UniProtKB/TrEMBL annotation:
<dbReference type="GO" id="GO:0071035">
    <property type="term" value="P:nuclear polyadenylation-dependent rRNA catabolic process"/>
</dbReference>
<dbReference type="GO" id="GO:0046872">
    <property type="term" value="F:metal ion binding"/>
</dbReference>
<keyword id="KW-0540">Nuclease</keyword>
<dbReference type="GO" id="GO:0031087">
    <property type="term" value="P:deadenylation-independent decapping of nuclear-transcribed mRNA"/>
</dbReference>
<dbReference type="Pfam" id="PF08652">
    <property type="entry name" value="RAI1"/>
</dbReference>
<keyword id="KW-0547">Nucleotide-binding</keyword>
<feature type="domain" description="RAI1-like">
    <location>
        <begin position="19"/>
        <end position="360"/>
    </location>
</feature>
<dbReference type="GO" id="GO:0000166">
    <property type="term" value="F:nucleotide binding"/>
</dbReference>
<dbReference type="GO" id="GO:0030234">
    <property type="term" value="F:enzyme regulator activity"/>
</dbReference>
<dbReference type="InterPro" id="IPR039039">
    <property type="entry name" value="RAI1-like_fam"/>
</dbReference>
<dbReference type="GO" id="GO:0000448">
    <property type="term" value="P:cleavage in ITS2 between 5.8S rRNA and LSU-rRNA of tricistronic rRNA transcript (SSU-rRNA, 5.8S rRNA, LSU-rRNA)"/>
</dbReference>
<comment type="similarity">
    <text>Belongs to the DXO/Dom3Z family.</text>
</comment>
<dbReference type="GO" id="GO:1990174">
    <property type="term" value="F:phosphodiesterase decapping endonuclease activity"/>
</dbReference>
<dbReference type="GO" id="GO:0003723">
    <property type="term" value="F:RNA binding"/>
</dbReference>
<dbReference type="GO" id="GO:1904595">
    <property type="term" value="P:positive regulation of termination of RNA polymerase II transcription"/>
</dbReference>
<protein>
    <recommendedName>
        <fullName>Decapping nuclease</fullName>
        <ecNumber>3.6.1.-</ecNumber>
    </recommendedName>
</protein>
<comment type="function">
    <text>Decapping enzyme for NAD-capped RNAs: specifically hydrolyzes the nicotinamide adenine dinucleotide (NAD) cap from a subset of RNAs by removing the entire NAD moiety from the 5'-end of an NAD-capped RNA.</text>
</comment>
Length: 384
């Protein structure tokens, strides 16, 4: 009989014990969706002195030339293949399987945390969960293609302004390696979101060990060669300027969401750009991830939100590990995980399901290379 189970969003765990995140590897994703393991060619460096604000930069400049890879619905933007290739490279180096219970992206875990704490209509949860080789691999099943709303719409301008802010404030090489001409021409640079740098992090809560992949916006200061660089990374965000109490409350909710993103993988620095009603960049402010729970204490709605998020994070991971059988062999069992009303619904995918073959036998979730690697590794272990 197929497995079905529910977890109600009121559930909370007694544990708040978090493991210190550690960077295990990284990869660069190219604009044509190629994955370059242990390659930092897409890593950017933050550089934006206060004097740049005097230029009154328009954050909608160049919007009609925006190269928006997310608009291509034919590309699987949530593919795990780059993350799995990085894990495989780590395992080849260590000559053993990585110790982990759950493997997924930070964005997936952020969705799962947010669905219990925010209006669910803003956090659509539609996931595939695969049980394979004693581990659970979770992939977003949502189709991402960005709808074309027109470059003049407020939503699209705000969407674009975030990528424009990243382009304005970062360099493809460190400041010392960047020609002056490149520095001064950043406001005219064509904005693109196709290339990414992704860190792969080992972390955990309670008894659950997780491997999370997370896109990194930039290095704030410098990168250490051959070292864990989590302490050097920064998250970049752009938001409407805060002029009223209502604006402050809205921004605090955004800050909480950003805190969830950053605490999950141990990114300690958040940099916000603030735009006015005409999308002119007016100010830039830096926040420490560790200090945000204190900053939110004065907001009645968010006083205990950070602690509540951690307790739900613990409850969800405990439930998932207790509910799904994890066989030691390389047999694949697949499930859907969706949010319905006031609970998460887990349902086993049967062979009659239209997605079954692609998930279990194909490469919708696991790449053939990774499946073969794990099969070979298990055979090697059993013979040794």
């Amino acid at each position: 009989m197929p497995l079905n189970a529910n977890l109600f969003i009121k559930k909370r765990s007694g544990t708040t014990a978090l493991k210190q995140p550690k960077e295990l590897g990284y990869y660069s994703k190219t604009a044509d969706n190629q994955f370059l393991v242990q390659d930092d060619s897409n890593l950017c460096y933050y550089y934006f002195p206060d004097s740049c604000l005097e230029r009154n930069i328009d954050l909608t400049g160049g919007i009609k030339k925006f190269r928006d890879s997310m608009a291509d619905s034919n590309v699987d933007h949530s593919t795990l293949h780059g993350l799995l290739s990085t894990i495989q490279k780590y395992e080849e180096r260590k000559e053993k399987k990585i110790k982990a219970d759950i493997i997924t992206f930070r964005g997936v875990m952020r969705k799962l945390i947010s669905c219990a704490l925010e209006n669910p209509k803003y956090n659509k949860v539609s996931l595939y969960v695969v049980s394979f080789n004693e581990q659970l691999i979770i992939k977003d099943a949502t189709k991402v293609g960005q709808p074309s709303t027109g470059t003049d719409s407020i939503d699209y301008r705000n969407y674009y302004s975030g990528y424009k802010f990243e382009t304005l404030t970062t360099l493809s090489k460190s400041f010392s390696e960047t020609p002056r001409q490149v520095l001064e021409s950043r406001p005219k640079k064509i904005v693109s979101n196709g290339e990414q740098f992704v860190t792969v992090v080992r972390t955990g809560i309670g008894k659950c060990k997780l491997i999370l992949g997370a896109e990194v916006d930039c290095v704030f200061d410098f990168k250490e060669v051959g070292s864990d660089n989590l302490k050097h990374y920064a998250e970049l965000k752009c938001s409407k300027a805060v002029n009223t109490v209502a604006d402050a409350r809205t921004f605090e909710l955004k800050l909480f969401k950003t805190w969830v993103q950053c605490f999950l993988v141990g990114i300690n620095r958040i940099i916000y750009g603030f735009r006015d009603e005409n999308c002119i960049l007016k100010s830039v402010e830096e926040f420490s991830t560790q200090e945000i729970p204190v900053l939110l204490k004065n907001n009645p709605r968010l006083t205990n939100a950070c602690l509540d998020a951690i307790k739900w994070y613990g409850a969800f991971t405990e439930w998932l590990l207790d509910t799904i059988p994890r066989e030691s062999n390389t047999k694949i069992t697949a499930y859907t995980l969706e949010f319905e009303h006031n609970h998460l619904k887990l349902s086993e995918i049967e062979p009659s399901h239209p997605e079954y073959d692609g998930i279990v036998n194909g490469e919708v979730v696991l790449s053939e290379t990774f499946k073969q690697w794990r099969t070979n590794l298990q055979t090697k272990d059993s013979n040794s």
